[in-house]
Design brief:
single chain; alpha+beta; four-stranded antiparallel sheet; 27 strands; TPR-like_helical_dom_sf; WG_beta_rep; WG repeat protein; TPR_rpt; TPR repeat
């Protein structure tokens, strides 16, 4: 059971539904941070944010929340499913069919909506209840203040009705995915209405339920929505950290672009104009297909940044990802020629751990293995140089710590076991070969390759010839991705398993790569196609390269609308 986040300021009872405890699920997967794009000249445009935007200066209504005192200004829209294909519903109108995807050169054998399905299921409207509040919210045509970039509320009563309808859906919901979605959407509406205490309460609880699902995309959405609330409250340090954590390279590009857009608006609020430029340009770069709405919104944001720069200058230098995530850099190995030994230096280049070792490994997870000249075995030290595990423990083979555990061996050739930083053996079963723990699982070999959890329980049977998880961002992962998927090899044929050990794609394909909304596969002739996320045929393997398949998927997703 994942514990609830303590909230000292509960939402008023006006629209709050009873908060159900999260249902226990898989451990949450952390989202990988994304480095900002370099600064370059930004286009300036006076285009309105949408065709409905007024041509006269916009005046904030009493329901518009302006930035906190002494900030520059900035805002964002609400987050919805990252790749949702659904009918758009205008407030007070009946649902209309979604636009057809652009014509393609590939043979699409599946349902586009199924292949592009996001972590959040599509809500449905019923004649009895009227348009679904989630659809109405997703299709809402927002206007933005030209300087603050915050949503302007023309009809607050309409938004309050949407919030009440979300509460009606939330009250009977008991499962983690539904509660995570509805609570975070209600947080969006409360934020726009200016009820920031209520929005904070819903946003925190939504993240608890999202993390209980262990689903990367759902967690990312909840983090981004909560970050947006924190931004409006002026809690920029925590907001920027959550935006960075949420923006994993394993998410669909359109969702990542929207997250960069909102992270940039948070920087704008703080007067970090160069950093805001970086985020806005990254948002445009990630949209590989025509996206007039995002382009217009981003150009409007760039206009606001340019105006602020003209008034106030460029602002602070852009922060590194480690600064945003509040990650301190560990000491790094450095060889001392004078004493012919290894030590460690801090970020400023000064020696922090004296050179006294014949060999060292880099710090990982707050600890590093070192070997003294007079010993063949390794000892473990912390970042201050204090000894955690003595060399007399007898470990000739050692692996770096990850998730609090490290693989060690007494002969360095096999019989690998897992220990914690106190030297206690946590997994005593000896394995022939091992990979570091990642998101609570590790690929190991005992006869064949499989995977175990941190208690040593087998979650993937030991029947594969290897784990080689290839991602479309160019990375290869030892074991499972942030999303909880792994590519397994069975005699040269590739398939996919999830973190429960279930086979999602049988190992029958010559080549396979994990895409944020699909699986790219190569056919026997070397041509490429795609499967949907349930392993069903989606694009026949008739295209010349996987890059062409990714471009085809981008076109199919051109009508999707992530709403932040």
């Amino acid at each position: 059971m994942i514990p609830a986040v303590k909230d000292d300021t509960p939402a008023p009872a006006e629209s709050a539904a009873p908060a159900a405890a999260p249902v226990s699920g898989e451990p949450a997967a952390a989202a990988a941070p994304v480095s900002p794009a370099p600064v370059s000249a930004a286009p300036v445009s006076a285009n309105p944010v949408s065709p409905a935007a007024p041509t006269t200066p916009v005046v904030a209504t009493p329901d518009t929340v302006l930035p906190v005192a002494a900030s520059a200004a900035g805002a964002a829209t609400a987050l919805s499913a990252p790749t949702m294909l659904h009918p758009l519903v205008r407030p007070g109108a009946a649902p209309t069919p979604a636009a057809e995807p652009a014509a393609t050169t590939a043979t699409v054998t599946g349902d586009a909506a199924a292949a592009a399905a996001a972590a959040e299921p599509e809500p449905e409207a019923t004649p009895e209840s009227g348009p679904d509040p989630e659809q109405v919210l997703a299709a809402y045509e927002w206007r933005f203040h030209h300087e603050t970039l915050r949503e302007l509320v023309d009809n607050p009563d309409e938004l309050r009705e949407i919030r009440d309808r979300l509460t009606e859906k939330l009250t009977p919901a008991t499962d983690n995915p539904t509660r995570a979605r509805l609570l975070s959407l209600r947080a969006v509406v409360s934020r726009i209405l200016g009820d920031l205490t209520k929005a904070l309460s819903d946003g925190k609880m939504a993240l608890v339920h999202a993390e209980a699902t262990g689903e990367l995309r759902r967690i990312a959405l909840a983090k981004a929505r909560l970050a947006h609330v924190l931004q409006w409250r002026g809690d920029f340090t925590e907001a920027d950290k959550l935006f960075a954590e949420a923006n994993s390279t394993e998410l669909p590009d359109r969702l990542r672009a929207t997250m960069h857009e909102h992270a940039g608006r948070s920087c704008l609020d703080q007067g970090r104009y160069m950093e805001a430029f970086n985020h806005f340009e990254k948002a445009l770069e990630l949209r590989k297909v025509e996206d007039p709405e995002l382009i217009t919104r981003t150009e409007m944001a760039l206009d606001a940044v340019s105006m602020k720069i003209a008034e106030n200058g460029m602002g602070p230098y852009p922060r590194s990802m480690d600064e945003i995530l509040q990650v301190s850099k560990p000491p790094v190995p450095r060889f001392d020629e004078r004493v012919q030994c290894w030590g460690f230096a801090g970020a400023d280049g000064r020696t922090v751990i004296s050179p006294a070792f014949a060999d060292v490994q880099p710090f990982r997870d707050g600890a590093a293995w070192v070997r003294r000249p007079e010993m063949e075995t390794w000892e473990l030290i912390d970042e201050a140089g204090a000894r955690l595990i003595d060399g007399r423990a007898g470990w000739l083979g050692v692996g770096s710590f990850s998730d609090g555990l490290a693989w060690v061996s007494r002969d360095g050739a096999g019989n690998w076991v897992a220990i914690d930083k106190q030297g206690r053996v946590i997994i005593s079963t000896g394995f022939e070969d091992v990979r570091p723990f990642r998101r609570g699982l590790a690929a190991v070999r005992r006869g064949g390759w499989g995977a175990v959890d941190k208690q040593g329980r087998a979650v993937v049977p030991f029947q594969f010839t290897g784990f080689a998880t290839a991602l479309t961002d160019g990375r290869y992962v030892d074991g499972f991705s942030d999303e909880g998927l792994a590519i397994v090899d069975a005699g040269g044929r590739k398939g996919v398993v999830d973190r429960t050990g279930a086979v999602v794609v049988p190992p029958v394909h010559p080549a396979l790569v994990i895409h944020p909304v699909a699986f790219l596969i190569a056919g026997p002739s070397g041509r490429w196609g795609a499967l949907d996320r349930k392993g069903r045929p989606f694009i026949d393997p008739e295209l010349p390269s996987r890059q062409v398949v990714m471009e085809e998927l981008d076109r199919l997703l051109a009508d999707t609308k992530p709403v932040l």
